[in-house]
Structures are given as structure tokens and as C-alpha cells.
Amino acid sequence: MEPKDINCPMRGQIKSYCSCPKPDCENHGLCCTCIINHKNKADAPVEKRFPHCLRDLVKEAVGR
Question: Has residue 40 got a pLDDT over 90?
Fold first, then answer.
């Protein structure tokens, strides 16, 4: 993905709650682009196709 200059009014607040271990990621704090980026990882294991913040829910849903 190309670097983006997206004006998200909630980005600062989202970043304070974001559990992603990669704060230097260009999608950090931009949930919509983060979700799309992860969803498009077709060759990745299913858990990696979800953003870090949703992985606990995925594990809970599949009983891991």
C-alpha cells in the first residue's frame, strides 16, 4: 500500500486504544484501512486476516 494522508477526526483517539504492536504502521489508528489491508492477505492464516485488535475475538469464536 502507498503511504496515505488520511484526515480521520478520530485517529488520535483510536490510536490511544489501538492494541497493534506496530505503531509505525501507516494504518495505525485507521481502522477501516487496517481491516481492508488484513482482509486482503489471502495467503495468510485466517487469524492474520484480522487486525490485531480483533484476534482475541476470533480465537474466542473458533474456540482456541
Answer: yes
For residues 21 and 13, is the Cβ–Cβ distance under 8 A?
Answer: no
Q: Say if CB 53 and CB 19 are below 8 A apart.
A: yes
Cell digits of residue 63: 474456540
C-alpha cell at 43: 495467503
CA distance 9 to 19: 19
List the grid coordinates of 9.
Answer: 477526526
Q: The C-alpha cell of 49 is what?
A: 486476516
Closest CA to 48 of 29, 34, 63: 34
CA 49 to chain centroid, in Å, comes to: 9
How many Å apart are CA 57 and CA 55, to the nearest integer? Answer: 5
User: Considering the entire predicted model, what is its pTM?
Assistant: 0.74
